[in-house]
Amino acid sequence: MHPAAWAYYSAGAGDEVTLRRERDAFEKLLLVPRVLRGVDHADTSASVLGAPIRAPIMVAPTGVQGLAHPEGECATARGAGEAGTLMAVSTVSSRRLEDVAAAATGPLWFQLYVYEGARPFAETLVRRAERAGYGAIVLTVDAPRWGRKERFLRVEDELPPGASAVSIEEELGEEAREPAALTPEDVAWLRSSTGLPIVLKGILHPEDAALAVEHGVEGVVVSTHGGRQLDGVPASVEALPAVVEAVAGRAEVYMDGGIRRGTDVLKALALGARAVFVGRPVLWGLAADGAAGVGRVLEMLREELELAMILAGLPDLESVGPDLARKG
Ligand SMILES: Cc1cc2nc3c(=O)[nH]c(=O)nc-3n(C[C@H](O)[C@H](O)[C@H](O)COP(=O)(O)O)c2cc1C
């Protein structure tokens, strides 16, 4: 991978305190297995907003995948489909959302950024996503401005071609755009604008989760944006239990950030997540071997989850409960 692309993908904001914490928090959580349960196989199959997936491990929306592989998001979509799971496609994609849908073999959700001074563009994207068969709109709410990813900013000028975000540039031109500072009215607008399920991504505070549910969203993603927005926030897995409590079963709760092993997935499920998203590891698989690399990363995580479930005495996801995880 080009060093500037690596910097874009791997960097976190500021001093990367939250980026490191995403890993530390998982390592500090402990699993307490049960034995003598006769569990010799485990069923990892799950569903999200009614879509069946082979494991509760989905592909997070990450921008500009043309930097990792010439086929970009189209290859990722094929890899996710091969692994039997769902991909969320970023607004900042290197391939048109229609082309990703045409390449996909599994379910897709569309991640929406609303840009400052360009709200009609958001409406256009939603219509296009509906027509192309996307199953939900994931509105990212943690980015009223882009976080400062300093490791990337130092080498930004060296980015190789392939770094274009095609949908945005077609409609808005090539000048850099800042996202809009969203309010509950934007969520209400989206609710009235589409019949697709809505997922809000980037929730850490339980009151924001409650607000989201009151606006009729079907899901929330507890996320620090991979440590790329406000540095110094807790890891997503630390924020997760309070959000699960506030949502109280009224919407599906997912999380992302720092998932690198099947045991991390199990810990997140024990704390109440219905499923998780994976960001950077998918990009590494994509860079290494295109669609096959993405599929392999996702299958490795699924196999690790399956083994962890067997070793913990859990035959299926319904048997995962809060007594499985405790703080170290
Ligand atoms: C290179 C990169 C680009 C990203 N682009 C987006 C994006 O366009 N939209 C979005 O909602 N989140 C974006 N994210 C955040 C991811 O969806 C996700 O929250 C995060 O990567 C999860 O953490 P992980 O990388 O540790 O798995 C991006 C993350 C990375 C690393």
From TrEMBL:
Family statement: Belongs to the FMN-dependent alpha-hydroxy acid dehydrogenase family.
Signal peptide bounds: none
Keywords: Flavoprotein, FMN, Oxidoreductase
GO molecular function, one term: FMN binding
Keyword Flavoprotein carried by entry: yes
Cofactor: FMN
Binding, FMN: 61-63, 90, 111, 140, 201, 223, 256-260, 279-280
Record: residues binding glyoxylate: Y8, Y113, H225, R228
Family matches, as InterPro entries: Aldolase_TIM, Alpha-hydoxy_acid_DH_FMN, FMN-dep_DH, FMN_HAD
Catalytic residues as annotated in Swiss-Prot or TrEMBL: H225
Ranges of residues in domain FMN hydroxy acid dehydrogenase: 1-328
Any one of the GO CC terms: cytoplasm
Pfam families: FMN_dh
Entry-linked PROSITE patterns: FMN_HYDROXY_ACID_DH_2
Protein name: Alpha-hydroxy-acid oxidizing protein
